[in-house]
Amino acid sequence: MKFIKHISILLIILSTSMLSAQVKFEAKVSKQRLGVNERLRIDFEMNQDGDNFNPPDFSNFTVVGGPNQSVSNSWINGVRSYKKVYSYFLAPKGRGNFTISQATIHIAGETYKTVPITIEVTAAIDIPKDPNDPNYIASESIHLVAEVSKTNPYLNEAITVVYKLYVSPNIAVDNWNEIDSPRYNDFWSQNIDTQGQKVQNGTFKGEEYRFLILRKTVLYPQKTGKLNIEPLSLDIALRVPTNRRDIFGSILMTRASKVVSAGNSTITVKPLPEEGKPLDFTGAVGNFSFDVAASKKELKASESLELKVSVKGNGNLKLFKLPKVSLPSSLEVYEPEHTENVNTSLAGMQGSISDSYTVVPQYKGKYPIPSISFSYFDLKTETYKRLTSEEIILDVLDGPLNGSNTANATGGNKQPVVLSKDQFAYIKTKSDFVNTNTSNFFKTTTFWSLLLLPFLAIPIAIVVRNKKATRDADVYGNKIRKADKLARKYLSSAKKSLGQKEAFYIALEKALHNYLKAKLHIETYELSKDRITNLLSEKKVEASVIKDFASILESCELARYTPIDIVTMQEDYEKAAATISLIDKQAR
């Protein structure tokens, strides 16, 4: 019995020692779901010391702190406990679902890897203020506000959102970067140019502030009910005062960074009333005038005139259709040409829209163009209004008469049609052939040229064939030509968008991805940075070229949130073309 007891104790001790000797290397995050204005802490923890620690690529985050290293070594009941931790503090660059890839380390001659972690970054959230936080002064001294003109508009009624950045006079802003742009789901939206705006003085919550208008947006709700206006978020670098002073008594400043958000806004959109709604109502909301005009009222048959249907005023001019015209069948009408002359300001859309019809009468006579009605919802009186055009009479002075007019002109006394036996005499039943060949073709210049042409073509064909064989044998030259052709093929759409920042970088990124999929034979879900690097390395592509390609992809991601001029776009385009060409030449 004692022997069995001793064996049991020995097994317990051995299993304990084996467990204690087991290597652990894992990644732990402070949270897996955070707002774009929050910070993420990630710890890489191991229970044995190791070498050559390689962190993952934090491409979707900005490292704002770290790596910080901590080591703890303790003995409890004769058992050694060891822990080493590498810590990083990360700020997300934007919203989305991101994967933090594997970190690696060498322990006792073996390589250990962490498990990839998926992080969800949402819109900005409200963060509780901590008076002991070094960034507390920045939190209390800078504010981003979204001013919504109306929170309970009608469907298709214009509202404005003005984003203002308030800064306390005792801090200084160095620069800012837009990390999250609002997405106006269920709205028609248009941004108003705010370039050249100057800093103004004002008050915020009863205190003196300086403020700058960053963005003005006009919105037309396209759906009724509660709609959400997502926040604008900025990452701001600034300097805040401290409690320290220099030798001259001036307050010392320290650098800080702050992510500010305008916060979510909710509006309640009212449906347009059903009472009194006209049957021909097409969704026009605002204050309008209506006109139907003809370029001429007297003309000849087969001449053309322009019939213009136009609406002018203030409202959702781009969001409804003009009424159609109904004309007599004897008037030939072409598809209308739609024209918009609309300016958008904080007051909404203002201007005019029109449909221009080209009308061509076929017969002589007078033709009425019936009156046309246009209905809209007037926001001032909150009632529907109808505008009706006057009838227009077209007088076609000269031209053939149509069937009805001919009958009337003869007074109904129709004469019988007498057929002549020679009515088809103009059709010839016999032909007289004439010989057009007045000279002998044999032994002419044309004859000898056509005879000798095949013999002359043989040496030309041999020369062309030899040149083609020489070109086919030029492997390096063919690679260069093929690479340039691929670069032009995949980058053609991006080149067309030069000068339009967002469209250019979307097209450039798509071109790079399509090129990789075609070159490396991979799918879209495999387009990770590590996967691309490994595949290009396997194909013997130089590390510098791989690095350039990765930097271009990163530029495409960052360019949507930073101001870019056309010179930089041109440089990125040329760099992308050169890199694709190099990859195609080097890949084996």
Automatic annotation (TrEMBL):
PANTHER family listed in its UniProt record: BATD, PROTEIN BATD-RELATED
Transmembrane segment boundaries: 446-464
Signal peptide as annotated in the record: 1-21
Pfam family, one: BatD
Taxonomic source organism: Mariniflexile jejuense
Keywords assigned by UniProt, alphabetized: Membrane, Signal, Transmembrane, Transmembrane helix
Stated name of the protein: BatD family protein
InterPro entries per record: BatD
Origin: domain of life: Bacteria
